[in-house]
Amino acid sequence: MSFLLHPKIASLILAAALLFAAATDYIPAFMDSEGRVFGLFRLDVYKDALHVASGLWALVAAFWSRGAAIAFLRIFGVLYFVDGAMGVVTGSGFLDLSIFTTGWAPVSQLVKFLSSVPHLVLGAFASMAGFLARETE
Fold first, then answer.
1. 5, 13, 9, 1: which is closest to 132 by C-alpha?
2. 53 contacts: CB under 8 Å, gap ≥ 6
3. What are the Cα distances from residue 103, in Å, to 41, 49, 74?
4. DSSP letter assigned to residue 103
């Protein structure tokens, strides 16, 4: 797990994951017959834009500096993990404003959890990489 101590590499991994997340909405192999990604949730242009913006932020931070990568990992990690935790409880998040626009999602607890796993995993990974990284090499 030594890559966790290299914030630039962790940022590049997150950039790839986030850009992949945005792409899944446009790849039929990831969609079910009702237009849900992995059969769990629907993405829209707004959510895709958030994933692309986050991915670009990660990419820029990785190439900008070690400090920029650490800042990205810490901020992004906390925001995404909290958003995922909120999704487990409500089925909605705050980053995409769905908790404000649609409220609590009327889906099973299993779907809430499975839909939130990506944000929980990415948030935990980013937080660990950011908070465990040394400020200087």
1. 5
2. none
3. 15, 21, 27
4. -
- Encode 12-64 in three state secondary structure: HHHHHHHHHHHHHCCCHHHECCCCCECCCECCCHHHHHHHHHHHHHHHHHHHH
116 or 96: which leads in pLDDT = 116
Tally the residues of the chain: 137
CA atoms of 112 and 96, how far apart (whole Å): 15
Q: Give, as one character, the DSSP assignment of residue 105.
A: -
Whose tokens are 């409880």? That residue is: 89
| Global pTM exceeds 0.90 | no
**Segment 55-83, tens digit of pLDDT:** 999 999 999 999 999 999 999 999 999 99
Q: In the prediction, which pLDDT does 1 show? A: 47
